[in-house]
Amino acid sequence: MAYKDQARARNNQSALKSRFSEYAAAVQSPAMVSRVANARGFLLLLLRRLRRHLPWIIIIVAITVLEILYHIRSPLETLAEPLDKPFATGCRNPPIDAPRANATLLMLARNSDVNGAVAAIRSVEDRFNHWAHYPIIFLNDEPFNSTFTTALSSVSSGEVTFATIPRGMWSMPSQLNNERAQKAMVFQKDHKVPYGGMESYHHMCRFNSGFFYDMAELQKYRWYWRIEPNVRFTCDITYDPFIEMQRAGKKYGYIIALWELIGTAPTLYRKLSDYKTLHSFPTTRLWSALIKRSIAPWPIRKMLALTQRNRNSAGDKWNTCHFWSNFEIADMDWYRGPEYRNLFSFLDQDGGFYLERWGDAPIHTLAAAMLLKDSEIHHFRDWGYSHPPFQYIPATPKLRKKGDWKLGELQNVRVPEEVRERNEMRGCNCEVSFELSSVIHPYCANVVGRALYGTADVDIDAQG
């Protein structure tokens, strides 16, 4: 056996030597030598010609680099004063006897959501509405059953209304080809677009983007606070957010900012960017902050803009940061105004609520960035909020001393009384539990934070 292995090894060595000899002979052949000489001569000629044009090459490269640096620069100037700040720090005595705003709490739910709806309303009652007693409107695309109405009436301290959404507000637009829409939803399902294959989800996104504020039950109200089943508020709210929004001239308020899945809305940013250009809306700090600028030189950016439908006319992308709209407090007079109505009509005519899976969250975000002043947007940085799988925690970084505490060390604790008395926290009576939700990267919170108050949010607040 050993003899056979040795013989095989000798044969392999002989074969390698033979191949090497053939290769060496080929390299040393007159034809190969001539080719190498020709290639070397061509390179030398090219280098000589390039040397003659070297000054122009340097100038072109320098201009290209400067143009790229200018294009990707941050357009956000340093703010002398922040455009937004918390309405309160720590705890205060609630204004129990003060006048209330023309406002309502609003929940879209199904009969099967009864347990999650009860949990969410109990949370908002415990943290806020037990002293404010604002009305609550529940919406459903089908009539609520007695189990739902009885359970939710029993946990709500304000006036309760149960309403069924008209079919015209919960269906495809008449101008959209139904067969084309059905094929698009099958495509989305096959390509794992979240909820892309669920027609009812598309109806919901369209309704939340452009119809809820026209419901008859909401017509008498100016402000709304959106609540979803299974959410939890983890800090006491000891002031009236509607009154404070009105007093500060705010029109839209959010808690969590995070990334959108670009597969749900691949063309939304391009279409809204073109719409903004067409109507000459000014560029706000927030709109600028939502742009992911391309590092490609100008000609390539123009080619990208022509060939990729997720880029604007300058060849840039949306960074997909948006406000998570499962919580929002907003002025419905803004939605009911001509600018927002025209914008929604433009999007509805396009058909992207079904041909893609446009969500109301990115639409509200990009609409606010386009149509509102930066100073009209408010971040409820002093509120704790959980919507699985994510949560917002306002107190944690205030309690940390330059990173001495890790976030996990604050699990399941109520902020100590002595800390509240020293105003070393932003929220009031906050309960921090990382068992509620997982950690989310603060990138989008910082992007928006730099636009609205001139500093990153990561050193002040935490999203978990």
TrEMBL record:
GO terms for cellular component: Golgi apparatus; membrane. Keywords: Glycosyltransferase, Membrane, Transferase, Transmembrane, Transmembrane helix. One of its GO terms (biological process) is protein N-linked glycosylation. It holds the Pfam family Glyco_transf_15. The chain crosses the membrane at residues 54-72. InterPro entries: Glyco_trans_15 (IPR002685), Nucleotide-diphossugar_trans (IPR029044). SUPFAM superfamilies: Nucleotide-diphospho-sugar transferases. GO terms for molecular function: alpha-1,2-mannosyltransferase activity. The keyword Methyltransferase does not apply. The keyword Magnesium does not apply. Belongs to the glycosyltransferase 15 family. PANTHER family: ALPHA-1,2 MANNOSYLTRANSFERASE KTR1, MANNOSYLTRANSFERASE KTR5-RELATED. This is Uncharacterized protein. It comes from Gomphillus americanus.
